[in-house]
Design goal:
3-stranded antiparallel β-sheet, 5 strands, two-stranded antiparallel ribbon, 137 residues, Nuclear Transport Factor 2, Chain: A, alpha+beta, 4 helices, single chain
C-alpha cells in the first residue's frame, strides 16, 4: 500500500482496521476546599454528572455551549411543582447525554424539601454498566 491511499476501498479498509481507543476519564478531584487529588472511572463520571448539572449552560466562556444545564433557571422560574418535576428529567438528560461515556439517563425520582430539590436517577454507561446517581439543588 502506498503512503497515501489511492482508492476509496483502501481508505475504507484503513477505517475498518482502526479500533476506537477508549480514553481514560482521569480528572482532578473537586472538593469543597479545592482540588483534592485525581479520580478516574465511575468516580470521575459521578463528579462530571454533579458538576454538569450545577453549572449554568452558556454562562461561562470556559465551557462550550453543550456543557452545563438550565436547571438553575428552571428552579428559579415561576412554574408549578408539577411542571418543574416534569422538566427536571429533560434538563438533566440534556446536560449529560452529550458525554461519550453516557448512553442514557432514566428512572428519575424528584423530591422536594423546603427550598431543596433532591433528584435521583440511573445512568447507563456506554461500556454497558449502570450506576445510580443523585444531585441536590
Amino acid at each position: 500500500m502506498a503512503i497515501i491511499p489511492e482508492t476509496l476501498e483502501e481508505i475504507e479498509n484503513d477505517v475498518l482496521e482502526t479500533e476506537m481507543e477508549i480514553q481514560p476519564s482521569l480528572t482532578y478531584q473537586l472538593t469543597a476546599s479545592g482540588l483534592g487529588g485525581i479520580v478516574d472511572g465511575k468516580e470521575a463520571i459521578r463528579q462530571f454528572i454533579v458538576k454538569a448539572i450545577r453549572t449554568a449552560r452558556s454562562r461561562f466562556l470556559i465551557y462550550d455551549d453543550q456543557y452545563g444545564s438550565e436547571i438553575e433557571d428552571l428552579i428559579g422560574a415561576d412554574v408549578t411543582r408539577e411542571l418543574l418535576d416534569e422538566e427536571i428529567p429533560r434538563v438533566i438528560r440534556e446536560a449529560l447525554i452529550y458525554d461519550d461515556r453516557i448512553a442514557d439517563v432514566t428512572n428519575f425520582n424528584v423530591s422536594h424539601s423546603g427550598d431543596t430539590v433532591l433528584i435521583k436517577f440511573d445512568v447507563s454507561l456506554t461500556n454497558g454498566e449502570r450506576m445510580e446517581s443523585e444531585v441536590t439543588i
